[in-house]
Amino acid sequence: MTDERLVPGRVGPVVPVDPVDPADPAPVGGGEPGRATIDPFDPTCAAPIPETERVILGHGSGGRLSANLLRDVVVPALGAASPGGVFNDAAVVEIAGSRLAFTTDSYVVSPIEFPGGDIGELAVNGTVNDLAMMGAVPVAISLAYVVEEGLPLEELRRITASAARAAQAAGVRIVTGDTKVVGRGAADRLFVNTAGVGLVPDGVAPSADRATVGDAVILSGPIGLHGVAIMSVREGLEFEVEIASDTRPLNGLVAALVAAVPDVHVLRDPTRGGLASALNEIAASSGVGVVLDEPAIPIPGPVRAACEMLGFDPFHVANEGVCVAIVPAGTEEAALAAMRSVPAGAEAALIGRAVADHPGMVTIRTLVGSERIVDMLIGEQLPRIC
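and the corresponding structure tokens:
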């Protein structure tokens, strides 16, 4: 028999456990005699029990656990092999008098085809956008596959053609790549890895640590579309209006913005972890607070309804076709006009300001006039979103 009562912090029914005999030297499940043990991987709560010995899904969320993994494991292990510094969407290195933006990314989205796009288009657009977030003009990218045995060739052909169309639309070339095949069960259909390079114009230097008090926070378009689109397919949900991923290249949008406001302080695309995690990273890196205006943030009605139904926070839902631009005070009107002049920024909106209060923290003024903290995503809201 199972006890169907709910227990705080756990999803699912409670299974009664018979009392353990203190004299039993080997209780079921291991552990100390006379004491029941709990597997930290067994609870299905979205906010996992803190784990310091093994990787869990939450480490790939783009939120607080991802930041902890970099801070506590990856960066110390790299040591002197890495220059350190601020975490941006791409590195900028000087070569022969030119500033070159360089980025790499891997894509494990499930399913590999979804409303509004597929893993091939997503990989190209994501790499182009990471370069654009440094103000760079994307030039060339690589495209590498890890293919599970049994994937239909027609599906691989279709996704590769989609990646090619995305590259042409963004004005970049796919110049190199690689293909590996693994046995059934060693991968989930198809994983994609990319790298990209671009040239950064003189006088352009956005970085996560450059936000200053008084800066305007601009969002290029509505949030939540990509995450909800993936979720709808994965969970078999149907809405009155189809929700499609917003995946698209943002280099044209950034070019228009930089032409109007060359001294853009910060650019960031809020992918995994959503808008909340991106702004918290910026606030922490720059040592400023951020105050948002909730009514100004564009959230499509179907996205809001889906999030309310499923208990998701739209500020934590992944995006693949919007960016956050933080620009100096007094330049916001020029920035908005430039962004709205291109299709990708048609719904650009001023959503907040950088402030001196509560450095490293993001808050939001709500519809009812109160103010609440907007924290980074903790745990994993929706695994394998990109």
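(Above: one complete record from the training split.) The helical segments are 64-78, 119-132, 153-170, 225-235, 251-260, 274-286, 301-310, 332-340.
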